[in-house]
Amino acid sequence: MPFSIKDVERGLKVTDRRADQHGVDNTTSPAITHKEEEELSGDRTNDFREKEKHLDDEEPRCNANEHDRISNGAEIQRTPTHKSHTSLKPKLAKLTNLALTRSNASIRDPGPPPDGGVKAWTQACMGHLVILNTWGMVATFGVFQTYYTTELGFEPSAVSWIGSMQMLGHFGLGMFTGRALDAGFYYYSLVPGMLLTALGMFMTSLCTHYYQFFLAQGLLTGLGCGCQFTPSMSLISTYFARNRSTALAIMASGSATGGLLYPTIARQLLPAIGFAWTVRVMGFIMLAWSAFHEPAYGLYLLGLFLFCFGIFFAFYYITSFAVNVLGVPYSTSINLLMIMNGVGLLGRLIPGYIADAYLGPYNTLIPLCFLTSIILYCWAAVYSVPSLYAFAILYGFFSAGFQGLFPAVLASLTKDMSKVGTRNGMGFGVVGLASLTGPPIAGALVQSHGGGYLAAQMWGASMMFAGSVVVLLGRLSITGWTLKIKV
């Protein structure tokens, strides 16, 4: 029961009386004796009983049974007078518990940083790729500045606002995304940032007016870069103490790598495929790097991308090679393609059985990748029809083994089955992108060399061999050099 005005006045009188007795200023010693406190408590109890009796006489609110239940100590239920407040209480309680849980997680002492080791330095290298796509892209804006002013006729000052907005989002958003990292929401900031950056580039490829470029490249891409930059820089700092400066330097050097990569792409592709597709290629590259926050999964996707650059070249061009180089009839060239596809039945079944029974899908896939790339190198030594048949059989068998096992490896790298669809979709998207660009590049090499296939054969086989090496590195990132583990 709260104090009434009468209680306060009585307390002040008692305090003044004690102060007069002991010669103490009542502003500094307002305490009362135990006896006087009991008197005040008794007076308050009497006041409460008088008020309660008065209310009962004035308006009785319960019958005899309810009065007995209340007098026996049962809890009185309060009738809600504002439904919205009552319905919000459980939701507010859940949000409070969630906030407290995240906050408690952030203040736990994780112990000293590892300051080295495979995981810490891998994080630094992966951070290098994040900066490549963010700071490196921002540092490349000079390419767009020149193109927008010379080709589109925009004012230089107006174009600079696009780059400045991109820079503002890149650095300025850190005041919010840095706090998200502290609260444990790193991936919730990183992944949307990657998607926003790539989406901004794809939308830039469709722009025709100044305001569209400002919103897509300046605002959207800037926000995406800001969601990635500060959390990633801060995260790497937690892995190092003595070597922190070196690790952050490795990470920050991604801006130099991106400053070399993207202008080179623009210089080579703008005259060949135009502005729209050049920007789309940059967006695809951003998506390809975005998977690297998990080393094993990211390395595997990069290996798939490189390997699939060259694997379908033989399927597309073996008939043309047979007709144009060896001079066989068209019907014979079709037979070669049918044989290459037909042996793929055994090529898929046998490696699949070996993977399940003995080695595991990842361990079985690696030798298939290396053998397929070596066989494609051997295509350059084919000068007769029988040797072309042998090439078709061997290449069809081992390449089919790869095509049958790479989805199984992709699924095995996902431990959380609630995300298997998303991660498999990312992997198939990478394969689709490589398959989209690989055969046309090989065809351009054939055409540029006057119908000769050697350059295209070496290019395709080299891409596949490089992809095999990266797939092997992804395997080593799981268990190290311990190879007798079924993966």
UniProtKB/TrEMBL annotation:
<dbReference type="InterPro" id="IPR011701">
    <property type="entry name" value="MFS"/>
</dbReference>
<feature type="transmembrane region" description="Helical">
    <location>
        <begin position="160"/>
        <end position="178"/>
    </location>
</feature>
<feature type="transmembrane region" description="Helical">
    <location>
        <begin position="458"/>
        <end position="478"/>
    </location>
</feature>
<keyword id="KW-1133">Transmembrane helix</keyword>
<keyword id="KW-0812">Transmembrane</keyword>
<feature type="transmembrane region" description="Helical">
    <location>
        <begin position="210"/>
        <end position="236"/>
    </location>
</feature>
<protein>
    <submittedName>
        <fullName>MFS general substrate transporter</fullName>
    </submittedName>
</protein>
<dbReference type="GO" id="GO:0022857">
    <property type="term" value="F:transmembrane transporter activity"/>
</dbReference>
<feature type="transmembrane region" description="Helical">
    <location>
        <begin position="185"/>
        <end position="204"/>
    </location>
</feature>
<feature type="transmembrane region" description="Helical">
    <location>
        <begin position="299"/>
        <end position="318"/>
    </location>
</feature>
<feature type="compositionally biased region" description="Basic and acidic residues">
    <location>
        <begin position="1"/>
        <end position="23"/>
    </location>
</feature>
<feature type="transmembrane region" description="Helical">
    <location>
        <begin position="129"/>
        <end position="148"/>
    </location>
</feature>
<feature type="transmembrane region" description="Helical">
    <location>
        <begin position="425"/>
        <end position="446"/>
    </location>
</feature>
<feature type="transmembrane region" description="Helical">
    <location>
        <begin position="388"/>
        <end position="413"/>
    </location>
</feature>
<keyword id="KW-0472">Membrane</keyword>
<dbReference type="GO" id="GO:0016020">
    <property type="term" value="C:membrane"/>
</dbReference>
<feature type="transmembrane region" description="Helical">
    <location>
        <begin position="362"/>
        <end position="382"/>
    </location>
</feature>
<dbReference type="Pfam" id="PF07690">
    <property type="entry name" value="MFS_1"/>
</dbReference>
<feature type="transmembrane region" description="Helical">
    <location>
        <begin position="272"/>
        <end position="292"/>
    </location>
</feature>
<feature type="transmembrane region" description="Helical">
    <location>
        <begin position="248"/>
        <end position="266"/>
    </location>
</feature>
<feature type="compositionally biased region" description="Basic and acidic residues">
    <location>
        <begin position="33"/>
        <end position="66"/>
    </location>
</feature>
<dbReference type="InterPro" id="IPR050327">
    <property type="entry name" value="Proton-linked_MCT"/>
</dbReference>
<dbReference type="InterPro" id="IPR036259">
    <property type="entry name" value="MFS_trans_sf"/>
</dbReference>
<feature type="region of interest" description="Disordered">
    <location>
        <begin position="1"/>
        <end position="66"/>
    </location>
</feature>
<feature type="transmembrane region" description="Helical">
    <location>
        <begin position="330"/>
        <end position="350"/>
    </location>
</feature>
<comment type="similarity">
    <text>Belongs to the major facilitator superfamily. Monocarboxylate porter (TC 2.A.1.13) family.</text>
</comment>
